[in-house]
Records
---
Amino acid sequence: MESRVMGLVLVLCAGASALDNGLMRTPPMGWLAWERYRCDIDCDSDPKNCISERLFMAMADRLAEDGWRELGYVYVNVDDCWSSMDRDADGRLQPDPRRFPAGMAALAQYVHQRGLKLGIYADLGTHTCGGYPGTTLDRVQTDAQTFAQWGVDMLKLDGCYSNSTEQEQGYPLMSKALNETGRPIGYSCSWPAYQGGLPPKVNYTQLGEICNLWRNYDDIEDSWSSVLSIIDWFSDNQDVLQPAAGPGRWNDPDMLVLGDFGLSVDQSRSQMALWAIMAAPLFMSNDLRTLSPEARAILQNKAIIAVNQDPLGTQGRRIVKEKSGVEVFWRPLSQGASALVFFSRRTDMPYRYKTTLGQLNYTAGHYQAYDLFSSQSVPSLSESVPFTVSINPSGVVMWYIYPAKLLGEEQDLGGVYPNFRRKYRLRPQNHPQPPPFLL
Ligand SMILES: *[C@@H]1O[C@H](CO)[C@@H](O)[C@H](O)[C@H]1NC(C)=O
Ligand SMILES: *[C@@H]1O[C@H](CO)[C@@H](O)[C@H](O)[C@H]1NC(C)=O
Ligand SMILES: *[C@@H]1O[C@H](CO)[C@@H](O)[C@H](O)[C@H]1NC(C)=O
């Protein structure tokens, strides 16, 4: 048991303030080019995948037409390598004219017409990580104005080619400059990732006041070992990171790479479940034109998205780390509910993990659980009754749990989850309404 202070965690979160732009009260969701498309600028031989307006328009089409937008995946985000190597005559950033012939304002309009939002990328330094023009301190205001004029809705500000003094000045300066444009622009800061992600070099109170989200740690890669190293770093440092998150201010463990090449189906489920538990931004970096049905089903799982987007906005924690390789993660949700993820790092066979809700810090009482991948209700539980979950190697079992009171007869909730049969009535004092994804 790593934590006996879950109640305290909630109290800690309630006080901290967030960047006052009204945005991202739940973790932002959408699509981001970097992990899958990098700095592929070879439009002659790779026209479908190169960083160009065609790629972003294609992804906007898919988000709008394939059911993503309705689930909350609304950001279409450009990353590095979009700009021309030169600023224009007035010193403003401009897109590469061959790859973005219509320009960024036209791309923003295209995206907005489909009910989506456009994100862009800049770097606080002499150059971007890919070697394109950077946003040095004297350019911060100009670039904020340019992005606002184009109709951009989000900015990721990277930190290559800047030192710690420049970052200390530049990240707050950009926050102020974005605010002064008068356009609400979500602000993603890579600052902590360049300072090791931990105090005393990183001040999470300050980050929460100036940024909506921030990259704490290394870039994700298309492999299970990369995903695992991120899960480990965030869990090992959860005492620092977990209280930093809340509505309008989020830790960002980086993109969802499921749907690419590196993860099995079970590993894909693990990434989705753990990102939901961590209240992480959900930015997919994959090819929505060729996504497998398995990856689509995981990314479009409404119940898991509802856990990620829970209005309480409390980041979850790892509460069990066993020698067997089993870890349990817990996230408190609104209306007295919670989510559990049982995660196995084992590499042998499905592991039968036996525990009780009492051992997982649940207070005495009856509970109803719902398995979010199988869409089945779990037999009723009380805190002292042992239960067993079978967890696949590098896989998860994910539950949504709420306190229940015996009603006696089964009630069919129907709708989205026809297999979910409710035996228990929700406790009125905790549960004015059943969770929305069960209706
Ligand atoms: C700018 O900041 C002020 C004060 O914090 C806030 O009321 C306002 O909504 C912000 N405007 C934008 C566009 O972020
Ligand atoms: C950071 O870079 C600036 C130049 O932009 C320089 O004046 C300053 O001394 C550097 N600070 C550190 C801590 O290296
Ligand atoms: C961290 O930032 C907050 C808010 O800006 C500030 O009040 C506090 O003094 C800072 N803490 C440290 C240790 O610098």
---
Amino acid sequence: MLLFTPGPTPSLEVIRNAMALPTLHHRTKEFEAYFEFCREKLKDLLNMQEVLMLACSGSGAMEASIKTFCKKPLCINSGKFGERFVNIAKSHNIDYIEVVNEWDTAPSVDEIKEILLNNKDIDSICIQICESAGGLRHNVEEIAKMTKSVNENIIIIADGITAIGVEKIDSSNIDVLIGGSQKAFMLPPGMAILGFSKKAIDIIEKNDVGFYFNLKTELKNQRKNTTAWTAPTTIIIGLAKYFEIADIKTIYKETRARALATQEALKSIGLIIYPKQPSLAMSTIYNEDSVSIRKILRQDYDVNIAGGQDKLKDNIFRINHMGIISIYESSWVVNAIELTLDKLNYRAFDGVANRVFLQKYYMELKDC
Ligand SMILES: *Cc1c(COP(=O)(O)O)cnc(C)c1O
């Protein structure tokens, strides 16, 4: 079965093999060498001054960030993950302002500027780079830049869990950049990543908050290539292997080509792309037969793609592009969707989806 859900993503055999080595103790020179290697590679990838690796899923890093940096966050809610920032703030009795949009719609830079100008007590913005609920790309870089021009002390917390390792992110105005192991890194779930600006580091060093998610304690330890608590050793060894094999420029190029080619191909067979600003991490299609489409894809064509969540549970399907994916797998997914539409009497199969996919894919690769 081809796993094409936007997280967890399939792990490559070389990465799985690296993780199958005998367990290492986390307080050893041997493990610290892996840790240091990953730290340096992550700083490079995120283009941030400091990074942390935490033993938790992505939401743990979201909670740690809210607790450490936010007294009055502006939360951008264009889907389940934006809503999660709001729910975390609520759970800690932190006052917040929320911008709610349909899951296919990103708020404009001007709309956010207006809110910042009218609410001088906002000290942080929490936003997804890609809101995975609808596969929507927010204009995070522009929002961050505008925010800093309004007030440079407002902390930008960007959830890049489905953007890191997908595309080059301009993190120059981002203070906290959040990642997770189970998306573009193709690792098992269980590790969150945080990148910090100089401004964020200063706050961490002043704000001694929380216990397990105390970023001050964690930063002190991780600067010495160790962790405050037991490290997720297996995942970190897998991450080291990822960095060993990953040519990040090629990954960006191929992910982009795969995403654009998939969208073209699906449009060519009459399907509708859901978000107004699609991310490169996944292709999201709006279709009221999504449940049947996914069922046929699984049963007849060995393809597992994701449905939606909540109000969009049965009305969208999402195809993953994150990670290192063989072109013949992505092309089979597109083919299988066209075959499925034939079975559901949408249109007769003529192979156009695959033709459009391959034409667009190789054209994109040639162009960059
Ligand atoms: C997957 C994902 C998360 C992390 O969720 P966890 O289940 O806690 O790992 C957070 N934000 C986005 C945008 C995601 O796609």
